[in-house]
Amino acid sequence: MKKLIGPFKQIITLRGIPLKGPIGDDQLEIISDGGLLIENGSILQIGAFSKFEGKFEVEEIKSDLVLLPGLIDSHTHMCWGGTRAEDYALRISGATYQEILKRGGGIHESVRKTRKSTPEELTNSLRGRAMRHAREGVTTVEIKSGYGLNVQDEIKMLEVIASIGEQLPINIISTCLAAHVRSKEFEDNRTYLDFIVNSLFPDLKSRKLTNRVDIFVEENAFNVEDSKYYLSQARKAGFELTVHADQFSTSGSRLAVEMGALSADHLESTAAKEIKLLSASNTVGTVLPGASIGLGMQFAPARKLLDAGACVAIASDWNPGSAPMGDLLVQAALIGAYEKLSTAETFAGITFRAAKALGLSDRGTLESGKLADLIAFEVSDYREILWHQGKLKPCLVWKEGNLIEND
Fold first, then answer.
1. How many domains, in total, are found in the chain?
2. What is the CATH number of the domain that holds 34?
3. 30 — phi, psi (to 5°)?
4. Residue range(s) defining the domain that contains residue 261
5. Is 54 exposed, middle or buried (0-12, 13-18, 19+ CB in 10 A)?
């Protein structure tokens, strides 16, 4: 059955905007007093509400609202056990991320606590985080494993992620990050990576738990040579690739481009050579302002990446260690202020450009044929959304044309 939703004071469609490079606010299509005609979860038509009125069943909007596409968070670690409050206290007292990791804290602390957690405990905590995301307008979210670091617990995490995807009214995209750091049960990186390739990859395929593989490319995680071997094996096995790149040193983004990864994520240390490579490639540069805030370090050079012609997405990196806040809209507003991103560039980074980082082309803009993933804000001018620096949340969220109840 066809359904008309509206009228909206403004509809910001984001259609017709290039996937790469800078965007001015004058490139935004704004439909005033508009409506959307929905059928079977997708947008049939979009235009002036008066064009459709009286012809279809109406889900009436009775106040002035601005409509945007549903937000897409393309990089998170939202499935974990325990907390990392002790790590955070150490960092704000002066210890570095690398120092804590070398002492057996950091990721290893989350591994210990996640391994001890039951599937039910992980499911309950992840459900709460995922529903908070949904209420805040995120209709598609990527969630990584990576706190198991063995076959049993990586599968446990990915099964929990899959189960949440079946339970909740948002889309969840899973990624295997077993190559987060080396498991302490192994003495060298290559032996551990071989173990993942030979013992975990076949299970991921047979159980259809994910079609995406990620690796953390840093000297205190996995160097370029070992990472290239691993990504080659993952690609040979039929997985899509993404890379944790250039967080503390410039090595991962070059590898991401060389391997044809969908995205290179972090980029806080990315410099001129890496910017040029990313901009000439089809690899999305995903910036993670939450990690910069959590670690007290510089933001990724989003402005320079855009000006050079790159595709830049913005994701929350929601994790228990470096990015515990997990608020995508707040983080996007903050990096926009610091990196001087236009409103259009910020919106693009958390919608259709984030969709590209996940290899998705059916969402992120409001136009015929796209999923009816919609969020509405109780303002009359779209510029007020970022003016509130992320504290203004959507009052209504639809997933595939169905209103998500805010309970």
1. 2
2. 2.30.40.10
3. -120, 115
4. 72-357
5. exposed
The answer to whether the peptide bond before residue 7 is cis (omega within 30 degrees of 0) is yes
Whether residue 115 sits in one domain with residue 251 = yes
For residues 47 and 366, the answer to whether their CB atoms sit within 8 Å is no
- Kindly state the greatest CA–CA separation across the chain: 70
pLDDT tens, the chain, 407 aa long: 899 999 999 999 999 999 999 999 999 999 999 999 999 999 999 999 999 988 899 999 989 999 999 999 999 999 999 998 888 888 888 888 778 777 777 889 999 999 999 999 999 999 999 999 999 999 999 999 999 999 999 999 999 999 999 999 999 999 999 999 999 999 999 999 999 999 999 999 999 999 999 999 998 899 999 999 999 999 999 999 999 999 999 999 999 999 999 999 999 999 999 999 999 999 999 999 999 999 999 999 999 999 999 999 999 999 999 999 999 999 999 999 999 999 999 999 999 999 999 999 999 999 999 999 999 999 999 999 999 999 999 999 999 999 997 65
Phi, psi (degrees; rounded to nearest 5) at 120: -65, -40
193 sits in which H/E element: helix 189-195
User: Do 13 and 135 belong together in one domain?
Assistant: no
Pick from 10, 71, 25: nearest CA to 378: 10
Domain CATH for 183:
3.20.20.140
The model carries a pTM of: 0.97
Let me know whether 40 and 92 are in one domain. no
DSSP code at position 382: T
